[in-house]
Every structure is written in structure tokens, then in C-alpha cells.
Amino acid sequence: MTITSDWHIHSRNSCDGACMEIAELVRRAAAEGITDFGLTDHIHTPFNLPDLDNSRAEYLSVDPDLRFHFGVEVSSVSQWEIDEVATGQHENPVYGLRQGGPANGSLAIGIDAEDIEKYAIEFVVGGTHWPMYVPFEREAIIRDYHRQNLFLATHPLVDIVAHPWWWMGHWKEENGDYPAEPWFDDFGHIPRSMHDEFAAAAVENDTVVEINISAILLNPHYPATFKEQYLEYLAELKGRGVSLSIGSDCHSAHYEIDFATAAAMLAKVDIRDEELWRLPPRKSAPQ
Asked: For the chain, which residues make up each domain, given as ranges?
């Protein structure tokens, strides 16, 4: 199959070191045969909203085609850190506050309905990016990530849940590989009941689940056996009636993604491009 859409792309306006100019994205998307796609720079807490101003301005400057959409990627964060960041007492909290909060506290995202209207956001991608103040123990991390994934799947403002069960940071080896914890030695460490609950929530709330290319399928630091299990997981979600979308999760200066290899992997589990979720073209140019 040939992949023709991409709903998770970062520009140089994103807060995490992404560095692509939006004009470069437009040029390369045409060359790659990506016909429907969207920009999704990061928002962790409202502290990052000035980045979204810059993202929107650069997006409009390229006179975007009706099939190039403006979105945002929000993180699951705690309401505690939203409130703490709002006090202005924390120096440069670009990634929110990664310590000091209550475990199992109320979850939140860094935008609201007024922000979506203000920035003319067409779709929201929501991702679980870090543990929410729980111990770095396999079972605790699994329970916490499941809680966050469910929160995003049921949030009324979230359209797509990004990269479920992606992990970065703790437990990696010196070369960056993840050989075991929290679920890389066997994806079966995650109880099937959690997958069932997540799939049911996505279907009930009409929430799309992302197939992430760079962060999961083609991640060179993830074991091959995990990727095989993850592909089966995606196929099971499809079988449960969950809508799936493609997200390259591009952070580099050039939009050069190995879509062909990702497509071949997905074809092995009978996931086809024509079945994947995409936004319809806008009816008019953005303002």
C-alpha cells in the first residue's frame, strides 16, 4: 500500500527542538505523495501558547492548500501542574512540572474550547508523554499510562490519541535501546482488559487512535519482537471498530519519512491506506 495522509507533524515552532520550516513541509509532502496532512506543534500547558501563535502565523504564511490542516498536539498533564504553572513561580516550565505533583491526581490538557476557536484549530492530537508522579515500577507505569490513554480517548476536545504505549527516558541503555521495561520485552505485560477498555472508549467517543511511524514502528531503539506485537495490537484495535490514523511524528528539519517501510509493515496485518482516518478538505482558505 501507499500512505497518503499524515496527522502528526511538528515544525520549528514546537517547543521540543523540532526544526522544520513549514514551507519545507509543504514541498516535501507533495514529493512524498502525502495528499492530506496536518501540522501539530506541541502544547503541554498554557505556558506554550505563544508557540502556537508562531505556528499559526507561519502556517498562514504558506497559503495552505485546502487539504493541509492546522492542528495541535496536547499532552496529558495534571491539573495540579496547570494551576502551578499559572502562578508564574516556576522558571521556564516548557514541559510542565515533571516532579512534585500528586499521583493519581486529576488529569488535564493545556488548551480549552476558547483556544481552539481563537487559533482555528481543526483537530487535536493528545498524547501520553510521561508518568504522572508515580514510581518507576513496571506495574505502576502501566496503570498510569492506561489511565492517561483513557483520559485522552474520552476527552471531548481530543480527536486522536497519539502513540499509545510509547515510552522514552527511564530504563534505556547507554546506546538508547529499550530491551525490557516497561513493556518492551513482552507487550503482554499490559493486561488485555486494558486494551479492551481503551478500544471500547475510543469507539464510544468516536476517537481516532494513531499509528505512529517514527516514534514506534520505525523506532530503532525498540525491539523487533515488540514491534511485531504492536502491529498485532493495532490490527486488534481495527477489528474492534477503532478508527486509525497515520502520524509520522516528524521532528527533523526535513520531511523525509520512510513511509514505504511503514506501509509494508501495516500491510502484513491488513491495515490499508483507504481505511485510515483523514479530515476532509476545507471548504475555504484559512483566515
From this structure: 5-275
